[in-house]
Amino acid sequence: MTDLHPFDDAIALTRLDHGTLRGTTSTAYANIAGPFGGTTAATMLRAVLDDDGRSGDPVALTVNFCGAMREGEFDISARMQRTGKYTQHWSVELTQEGTVLTTASVVCGQRSGGFSHQSAAMPEAPAPECCARLATAGRMNWLERYDFRFVEGAPVYAAVPFAEPAGSRSLMWVSDLPERPLDYLSLAALSDTFFLRLVHVRGTLAPMGTVSLTTYFHATPGELVAQSSAPLLGVAEGSRFHANFHDQQMELWGENGRLLATGAQVVWFKE
Amino acid sequence: MTDLHPFDDAIALTRLDHGTLRGTTSTAYANIAGPFGGTTAATMLRAVLDDDGRSGDPVALTVNFCGAMREGEFDISARMQRTGKYTQHWSVELTQEGTVLTTASVVCGQRSGGFSHQSAAMPEAPAPECCARLATAGRMNWLERYDFRFVEGAPVYAAVPFAEPAGSRSLMWVSDLPERPLDYLSLAALSDTFFLRLVHVRGTLAPMGTVSLTTYFHATPGELVAQSSAPLLGVAEGSRFHANFHDQQMELWGENGRLLATGAQVVWFKE
């Protein structure tokens, strides 16, 4: 028996008789309350990727965090909404004790090639080995499942909020800990490893949480294999923090300056 | 009887006995085949906003275009998934003759105030009256329902694709035609008025279409009233065009440099 990587353990699903998938939250990826949203996102995606009816590679994933998950078992049902010649659409729901706590939509696509052009440029950054690893011990468990090396915009936890808002942009190297070859599932989770921009802007950990997360997968299967377990360069930035919600955008860059994923999320904050 | 604005006519819904909502596509907003996606997005949002159970203002809207709508009647069902203290989550489905053609998720939120900060800066642009209106006659009808005034990156329809990819960024003033005071519904539609970036990059209208569209609403109700029917400044940019799909991001700016909405979409293209 081979030991599972903690990520694969966290997103493991068992198919029940009536087709529902059952999983269990992993304490290795525990957040302040309940599991890290990135593992939840990856588990929602997995429910589709593991389905016999699935056709094509993941192109888009939107995850809506409807209510707080508790640690323990959860059930996922994935429903194929439509299969066309080029795309396939799925709706996914996660419940605990019958209550819907997360919903998701997944779009898969047939990626056969053709025109290719990258208009965005990879941000400049020193090599990951030249950047210090963020100290994560003693905080939420999920932080210890990633190697964060900030180039710019490392989080600062202040005793009181900053007098003036700080910049919202971060640039960081990020990879699974322990190392794990990249796939669509880990890329989905990595897309949620960017700290909430309010932490960077205000310097405090007021009550806040992601309410909706969208990730677009640009990486083809061959590019994931080529990336393997090398660190990704991630950049994130927010644009407006107002009336209890803020947005943030992200890019995840891989080897040879390839843009592997882009995405956005909207975050609730208390005051 | 007051004449309805063509947008309000296009997104009108009637509640059927069993709670389903029925609409009819509007030729005034016809696209190459079927209706403009922006009106479909707005109609999905309307199904939630018109529901007696709805609580809070729209915060996030994701619309998945699963299959081509034809002109004619369509049915929408909106299901409230969860209502929390701060957010409410909805799943919405649009069918024609029983076939699911569009799905959507809507997040509404209680917006009571608190911390406010805009980290993004409005792009500089000459006043709308100093910019020429894009000629839209003789093309898809929906283009004539908007006043487009490009500052940068106007679309060029070339007979053959450009030899080298052009820039993906556009900056434009955009407003409803005829004028209509801004609300969340028109803002949802305006978020889909950015031409597909592939047109800008390649110069051709190859087969292509949006597969998933996400919009975050930053504007509060008071800001929508303040904006009224003044033009919005919109900026859009793509980052990677590869293996039949590309992304694009957008921002919509209003009076006094307020960021009213941000969003992203992923687009399929044939080759």
Write up this protein.
Chain A is mainly beta and 271 residues long. Chain A has a single domain (6-110, 131-269), classed as Porin (Beta Barrel), CATH 2.40.160.210. The first copy, chain A, has 5 helices and 14 strands. The first copy, chain A, has helices at residues 6-10, 37-49, 184-190, 197-202, 221-227; strands at residues 14-15, 21-24, 57-65, 73-83, 87-96, 99-109, 117-118, 146-152, 170-176, 208-217, 232-237, 240-242, 245-253, 259-269. In chain A, strands 1, 2, 3, 4, 5, 6, 8, 9, 10, 11, 12, 13 and 14 form a 13-stranded antiparallel β-sheet that branches. In chain A, strand 4 (73-83) and strand 5 form a beta hairpin. In chain A, helix 2 packs antiparallel against helix 3 (184-190). The longest helix of chain A has 13 residues, at 37-49. The model of chain A has no long low-confidence stretch (mean pLDDT 96). The interface between A and B is large, with 66 and 66 residues. Strand 12 of chain A pairs antiparallel with strand 7 of chain B.
Brief description of this entry?
The structure is a homodimer of 271-residue chains. With 271 residues, the first copy, chain A, is mostly beta strands.
